[in-house]
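(Protein data)
===
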Amino acid sequence: MNAPNSNSDEYGCYTNPLGVSTESLSGYPKPLANILALANEIKEPIKDLKELDFSSDIVQVESQVKVPPKDDSQVVKFPEPVKEHLYSVGLQIFIPFMIAGMGTIGAGLVLGNVEELVVFKEVKALYIMVPALIGLKGNLDMCLASRLSTQANLGNIDSRHEFLKMIVGNIFLVQIQAIVASCIVSVFAVTASSIMEGKFLFNDSILLSAASTATATLSCFILDFVLIAVIFVTRKFRMNPDNMATPIAASIGDVVSLLVLSTIASFLYMIHDSHTYVLFIILGIYLMLFLPLWILIVRRNKYTKAVLKDGWVPVISALFISGTGGLVLDSA
């Protein structure tokens, strides 16, 4: 059956669409003719696409696009690795470890002297606290040394503002951990001593709590500034802080902790019967004032807020291990 031509298209079913003048479409249905006509319209430009030159247009567009200036503050810059020679590394390791050895010997000498104090003779639970407090100092301050040494090796302490934020956040973080851990140590020491002696002395328990809290926070505070100074100096002289900060923290920390504990415990022992309220004031200041304030500061610090949440399990586990050593020391 032959398709009718456009002259006999009475109802408009067959037509020449879009005004395209071509005889080949005159006999097709209108929908199909529309499609074919549109194809004829775009077929010729497509053939010539390869012959077009867009280089001038691209240059014109690129000239009109405004590229924002490069912001160097948003570029992460990593410091170039420092080449460490064998003799330099050996010297950095040998001297701090010699200091650490002398510090351990000095801690033993100090412990031999404080055994003659009245408070150590009357309050036997102090012996249970000694290894735990020394171990607590080591755990907290050596973790601080590791964190700051890592930041120093990354070059983050070169900015004074960022270095100040690290110092504030890490010092208050250590203080929080010291308060909580010292309270746990005192409870452990009081409980163990009460079980072994068969009696519970309230004034002695408050004495242990106040002495352990004050000792832990004060000794950590002193050691924190020593470590910060060591890390800052080693960075300035282009030495590796990891080789020096941790051994120094382990060396002088034992001596400092024993001296602070013996001094504070002796003073509080003289007043714990006549001025018991002083012990409660000390505990209240630490637990009700300092602890919430320092938690608020640390939670807003980007360098320490994650450690505040996730860093408790190792610290508490180490406390109970050190407390076992205190039981052995008390029974010796």
